[in-house]
Amino acid sequence: MKKTLFEKIWDNHIVYPQDKDKQVDSYLLYIDRHLIHEVTSPQAFESLRLNNRKVRRPDLTFATMDHNVPTSDRSLPILDEISSIQISTLNDNCKEFGIKLYDLHSPYQGIVHVIGPELGLTIPGSTIVCGDSHTSTHGAFGAFAFGIGTSEVEHVLATQCLWLKKPKNFAVNFIGRRKNIHAITAKDMVLYLIRKIGIGGGIGSVLEYRGETISELSMEQRMTICNMSIEAGARAGLIAPDEITISYLKGRKYLPQGNKFDQLLDTWKELVTDDDSSFDMAVDINLQELAPQVTWGTNPSMTIDITDTIPYPDEYSQGNENQKMAAIKSLEYMGIEAGIPITSIPVDRVFIGSCTNSRLDDLVEASIVVRGRKVSSKVRAMVVPGSQQVKFAAEKLGIDKIFKEAGFEWRESGCSMCLGMNPDILSPKERCASTSNRNFEGRQGVGGRTHLVSPVMAAAAAIKGHFFDVREWL
Amino acid sequence: MKIFKTITSQAVPLPLVNIDTDQIIPKQFLKLIQKTGFGKFLFYDWRYDSEGNKKDDFVLNNPKYNNRQILLTLDNFGSGSSREHAVWAISDYGFKIIIAPSFADIFYNNCIKNCVLPIILSKPHIQLLFDNEDIMITVDLEKQQITANSITIPFKIDPSSKIYLLEGSDEISKTLKLESEISNYETNHPLYTNISE
Ligand code: SF4
To answer: Chain A contacts of B82, Cβ < 8 Å?
Structure first.
């Protein structure tokens, strides 16, 4: 039978088909890797304790601290008392249940979705969960990876399995080629997709990204795309593994070597969608005319080309009253007027970071824009590498110096201003060009205004002091 | 766990699309390490101004809507972050049911686990309820129907979620009974269920 990549992974992880007596439609699936962090795990551990349960496979469970952590000097104590409690709670829980933790002082600490692949925990054909919606990132390796809530975190800790209903197969076919591969990035591809299918467009499905351009992307760029699958409402994103995947993974810490690695390679060869298998849904996205994308509103589908003007609510909503209301509310929150060019909007802050765009590739590309230029005197700009490993690698290449000389702050790794749970936040009405994934109201700080862009576009905005078409420089 | 019973209540109307979990419970409240007490932070930035005063124009601050157990809203409710804190806040505030044309996937699952019933209705039915916001609504999960005045609207729910809400079974105990299936699976898939270093 012809199967899609997703169906192959799904079928291979069924532990128990369904509750036959009651005609129930869910399956018990085995979870190969469980990643945890400080924010969504404390209640799960507490509940295990209350019920006298243990963690079934601590050896398949890995923890780090990322959401809450300060990105300034790590030798100083954490000032926020509640953050500090959450961090020490994770410490205690990992000790008590025997779970490997990459803590603040570890050279492998970082955003959970950055360190999973770095450590070789993310492997093709596996199932991966984490109490975080951007777990979809790991789908770039051909793994079925998805975010779960805290009750499900507890269930996985106790059983290493989850009850799931089978999602639908959704093919995203990228057609044609980008005209400028440095200025028009993976981030622009995925923002454009969300603009086309909407933030609910992928509900209930797994998106498989396909097409020549996808196979030419680096693993970092593939992760950017899969990362934002959730912003289209999808359960997960998937890209079939290939030579690029294998060369990224070879030699990583948690991958076997020799014979066992070869055995894995053999199973990975099967991880493609068979020709002529059928998808429940499909969309074609043409890259030929793709321009750098910028969001103007308060969800990631409110996106335009850098050459566009801010849309009028009527234009955006195309007759849908609720969407029109949403657009009016967004424009008001963002403090911008319809009809003006996006390039005329000044920015106060620039944030290069988050699990979407904080990997070495992202920083290298952005540094090309920054080199020899200065951050506008009106802008405060920072780079927050996704992990300590990214930070070290970038420093080895001297990229930190390029950013610092231009006037960027160079920080320690963590989620930082992506969600502002640590001291890195926007003040009310401050406007930020951000490489993160969510431009929701208040996401980066109460009243803060977020515009999502690629790393090169963020770098250009930092220098110009307003949004700028980076194609002029690249 | 609580078991879901038939509920009769009026609804609180919140006619906005794409309400994300950052709005339902802003991140500054995610630092707590327990599951209770989140109700007072529900829709915090919409409910309170920067000085912590109630904003008069927000629906939850209108006494007329106090003690209503049904939240009526629009498409793609609960999108964004996987934080279960969003459902803890909704439930702690007193909502037992959310009615919308569509929900985000993770949020939907989180609702079921916390005995909050997410009901998907067609847009015309939702509009009908918005147009009659003070109407008494009875939700019968067993029969999968909503009655409001003389109108009866059926709704769909997947069987496993329905059983979970009605019987309140402890899902982890149920899974732990399948121990031999789980161990068998592990034995048969050694490449993925082991980690080498
Ligand atoms: S970087 Fe942002 S989106 Fe990614 S895990 Fe951290 S908070 Fe979530």
So the answer is: 40, 131-133, 147-149
pLDDT given at position B1: 54
Residues B38 and B92: beta-carbon distance below 8 Å: yes
Residue B52 falls in which region: left (phi positive, over 0), alpha (psi -120 to 50) or beta: left
Ligand 1 centroid to residue B81 C-alpha, Å: 9
Which residues have CB under 6 Å of ligand 1? A 66-67, 111, 113, 132, 134, 354-355, 415, 418-419, 436-437
Q: CA A396 from chain center: how many Å? A: 25
**Helix axis angle, A42-50 to A150-159, nearest 10°:** 50
Is the pLDDT assigned to residue A233 strictly greater than 70? yes
Q: Supply the angle between the helices B85-93 and B105-113 in degrees, to the nearest 10.
A: 50
Q: Quick check: B70 and B139 in contact, CB under 8 A? A: yes
In this structure, what token pair is assigned to residue A179?
A: 């005209």
Could you tell me the distance, in angstroms and rounded to a whole number, from the CA of residue A234 to the centre of ligand 1? 17
What is the signed CA dihedral for A295, A317, A192, B78, rounded to 10 degrees?
Answer: 80
Q: What are phi and psi of B146, to 5 degrees?
A: -115, 135
Dist. CA A55–CA A46, nearest whole Å: 12
Distance CA A29, CA A16 (A): 7
pLDDT in tens, A78-135: 778 888 898 999 999 999 999 999 999 999 999 999 999 999 999 999 999 999 999 9
Give the helix/strand (H/E) hosting A168: strand A168-175
- State if pTM tops 0.80: yes
How much is the ipTM here? 0.93
Which residues are CB-neighbours of A407 under 8 A, at least 6 positions away? Answer: A374, A375, A381
Q: Which amino acid is at B10?
A: Q
Q: What atom of ligand 1 comes closest to residue A137's alpha carbon?
A: 4
- In three-state secondary structure terms, B112 is helix
Q: Is the pLDDT of residue A187 over 80?
A: yes
- Judge contact between A122 and A135, C-beta under 8 A: no
Residue nearest to atom 4 of ligand 1 (CA): A355
Are the CB atoms for A390 and A358 separated by under 8 Å?
yes
Tell me how far apart the alpha carbons of residues A424 and A382 are, in angstroms, rounded to a whole number: 10
* SS3 readout for A351-396: EECCCCCCCHHHHHHHHHHHCCCCCCCCCEEEECCCEHHHHHHHHH
pLDDT attached to residue A217: 98
Minimal CA–CA distance to B74: which of B29, B31, B120, B113?
A: B120
